[in-house]
Design goal:
CATH topology: Methane Monooxygenase Hydroxylase, Chain G, domain 1
Strand content: under 5%
CATH architecture: Up-down Bundle
Shape: globular
Structural class: mainly alpha
Number of helices: 9
CATH class: Mainly Alpha
Largest sheet: none
Number of domains: 1
CATH superfamily: Phosphate transport system protein phou homolog 2, domain 2
Number of strands: 0
Distance between the termini: 36 Å
Order of helices and strands: HHHHHHHHH
């Protein structure tokens, strides 16, 4: 089997491919911002193009996950177990999966967002993407954590990142409550099916922040061990 730059990372550090996977996942999640910009302007050609990019990035992340699972050594001779790294990988992967799911249902139904909900939804989305960014930043401290033996100032730095990530996720929970309240007030002006799918999109978008927080939770477990 030919080698790839991704697989070559294992020669330097088994952690680096995990960091690169998270970077790819966050790149996928970030595409939801221009995607929804196109949705709100009802530019369905651009929506289709951006949906294709999100799906392609999710596929790339999926392939990276598969290669990581296949080539991660059974024994890493370090303070992080293989099972912990694989659990972290699975949580990361769910972020990209959710971005693909959201974009797929929006394009498939050509969902229109009324103005009263479009602006607060975009603020909510941006906050959820920020949670993904914070998770990506925290994951990229793993190399330094290993070098310091999970001790000293690096641990305090990462713990601070995890706390900030948890706070961001709680803020998205509050935003989700407000969005549901706005949508509730609009229900009699929309078709029941459209309302049902709007609630689903609000929920799924919030799951991006939830999964990002879970990345922080998995890091917290590594610190505790």
């Amino acid at each position: 089997m030919p080698t790839t730059p991704f697989l070559n990372m294992f020669g330097r550090s088994p952690i680096r491919p995990l960091e690169e996977h998270m970077a790819k996942v966050h790149t996928c999640v970030k595409e939801l911002k221009p995607f929804f910009d196109a949705v709100f302007s009802e530019n369905w050609k651009q929506v289709e193009i951006l949906r294709g990019r999100i799906a392609a990035l999710e596929h790339e992340a999926d392939e990276m996950k598969r290669q990581l699972r296949l080539h991660l050594p059974n024994s890493l001779f370090m303070s992080v177990s293989r099972s912990d790294l694989l659990a972290l990988l699975n949580v990361q992967d769910r972020l990209a999966n959710k971005a693909k799911d959201i974009s797929g249902i929006i394009l498939g139904r050509k969902m229109v967002f009324a103005k009263p909900i479009a602006i607060p939804f975009m603020e909510y989305l941006i906050h959820c993407i920020e949670a993904s960014r914070q998770a990506n930043t925290a994951i990229h401290e793993l190399d330094e954590l290993l070098e310091t033996g999970f001790s000293g100032s690096e641990v305090k730095l990462v713990e601070g990142m995890i706390a900030k990530l948890s706070h961001t996720e709680r803020e998205t929970d509050e935003q989700q409550i407000q969005l549901r309240h706005i949508l509730f007030g609009m229900e009699d002006k929309l078709s029941p099916v459209h309302v049902m799918f709007l609630y689903k999109i609000i929920e799924w978008t919030g799951e991006i922040a939830d999964r990002a927080r879970e990345v922080g939770d998995r890091l917290q477990i590594l610190l505790a061990r």
